[in-house]
């Protein structure tokens, strides 16, 4: 397992010099934040990103995310143009050594929370979802998220794209779950041959939360959905990101069992490791990574990864803001760094036990 840290580029208040001090973390999960969704990522900018990362002793093997234009998700007549742009981005990323692209196929919103800075009893702040607090009007939710983002870009909530929120919702009016699956298949059939050619594995991220909201379809919620997606294009390059938190938000999902079924197939190059705490039905909040702090058994999750011979990339995810840090919600330095230390400790103990 190769531990990594998500970095949002030169404008991230967390620096590469900060991340270098996190033990056993030599991989950066990178992205370009200034490219409009659907445009080609220029090779020169990708190389600049790689060179910045390499200068601090890190590798850039995983990109999260090359977001997918809504025309592809809705099956609009213009989708082929955006797919061609995506293919060129794949080729450009391969030229600098990237081997994994984490992406999602969620309509409009990449993830949804009803509170970005929910105060916990220990004095920290966390992201929280409470279905009863979800406004009926998605514009109200967007305004609430924008007012709580600490003036930092939130992936999936780009103001430029969501400025046309009503038009976006109109474009999805007649898109059913089966339509969205068919549009994913169309996309994958176009790009996977290129991925096989250049050696980049696509890793789709689960829906977050794994339920339909605002009437939008969701297609990666559980093990059954994963099997359906895997069958769309029978190739290991049609892979998955297993996000323990997103899948764990549905209490019916057995996350260790999902890991044991899919990791051995070679289709899981990337894992997001986080814990969440269920407060009530359809109410959960991000917690510290330790099993005792949330509702997921992180030891069982790490054991399942070890037993499945997972050798891909992993990162701690969705940390709280602690010790007065006023960072990007979910992506502060301190709690994610502590999470990495905890996860590495579990991994070391499991490995040593297995070798005795």
From TrEMBL:
<comment type="function">
    <text>Catalyzes the dehydration of D-mannonate.</text>
</comment>
<keyword id="KW-0456">Lyase</keyword>
<comment type="pathway">
    <text>Carbohydrate metabolism; pentose and glucuronate interconversion.</text>
</comment>
<dbReference type="GO" id="GO:0008927">
    <property type="term" value="F:mannonate dehydratase activity"/>
</dbReference>
<dbReference type="GO" id="GO:0008198">
    <property type="term" value="F:ferrous iron binding"/>
</dbReference>
<keyword id="KW-0464">Manganese</keyword>
<dbReference type="Pfam" id="PF03786">
    <property type="entry name" value="UxuA"/>
</dbReference>
<dbReference type="InterPro" id="IPR036237">
    <property type="entry name" value="Xyl_isomerase-like_sf"/>
</dbReference>
<keyword id="KW-0408">Iron</keyword>
<protein>
    <recommendedName>
        <fullName>Mannonate dehydratase</fullName>
        <ecNumber>4.2.1.8</ecNumber>
    </recommendedName>
</protein>
<dbReference type="GO" id="GO:0030145">
    <property type="term" value="F:manganese ion binding"/>
</dbReference>
<dbReference type="InterPro" id="IPR004628">
    <property type="entry name" value="Man_deHydtase"/>
</dbReference>
<comment type="similarity">
    <text>Belongs to the mannonate dehydratase family.</text>
</comment>
<dbReference type="GO" id="GO:0042840">
    <property type="term" value="P:D-glucuronate catabolic process"/>
</dbReference>
């Amino acid at each position: 397992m190769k531990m990594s840290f998500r970095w949002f580029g030169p404008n991230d208040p967390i620096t590469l010099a900060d991340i270098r001090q996190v033990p056993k973390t030599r991989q950066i999960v990178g992205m370009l934040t200034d490219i409009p969704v659907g445009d080609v990522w220029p090779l020169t900018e990708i190389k600049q990103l790689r060179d910045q990362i390499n200068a601090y002793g890190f590798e850039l093997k995983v990109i999260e995310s090359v977001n997918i234009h809504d025309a592809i998700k809705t099956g609009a007549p213009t989708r082929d143009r955006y797919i061609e742009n995506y293919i060129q981005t794949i080729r450009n990323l391969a030229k600098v050594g990237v081997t994994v692209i984490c992406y999602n196929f969620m309509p409009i919103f990449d993830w949804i929370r009803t509170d970005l800075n929910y105060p916990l009893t220990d004095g920290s702040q966390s992201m929280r979802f409470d279905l009863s607090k979800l406004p009926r009007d998605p514009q109200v939710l967007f305004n609430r998220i924008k007012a709580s983002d600490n003036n930092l870009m939130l992936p999936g909530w780009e103001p430029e794209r969501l400025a046309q929120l009503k038009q976006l919702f109109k474009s999805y009016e007649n898109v059913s779950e089966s339509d969205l699956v068919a549009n994913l298949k169309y996309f994958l059939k176009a790009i996977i041959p290129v991925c096989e050619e250049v050696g980049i594995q696509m890793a789709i991220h689960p829906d977050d939360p794994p339920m339909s909201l605002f009437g939008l379809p969701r297609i990666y919620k559980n093990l059954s959905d994963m099997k359906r997606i895997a069958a769309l294009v029978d190739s290991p390059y049609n892979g998955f990101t297993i996000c323990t938190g997103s899948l764990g938000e549905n209490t019916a999902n057995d996350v260790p069992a999902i890991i044991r079924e899919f990791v051995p197939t070679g289709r899981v190059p990337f894992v997001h490791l986080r814990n969440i705490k269920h407060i009530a039905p359809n109410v959960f909040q991000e917690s510290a990574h330790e099993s005792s702090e949330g509702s997921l058994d992180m030891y069982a999750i790490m054991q399942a990864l070890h037993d499945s011979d997972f050798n891909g990339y992993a990162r701690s995810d969705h940390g709280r803001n602690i010790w007065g840090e006023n960072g990007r919600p979910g992506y502060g330095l301190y709690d994610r760094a502590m999470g990495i230390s905890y996860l590495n400790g579990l991994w070391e103990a499991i490995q040593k036990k297995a070798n005795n």
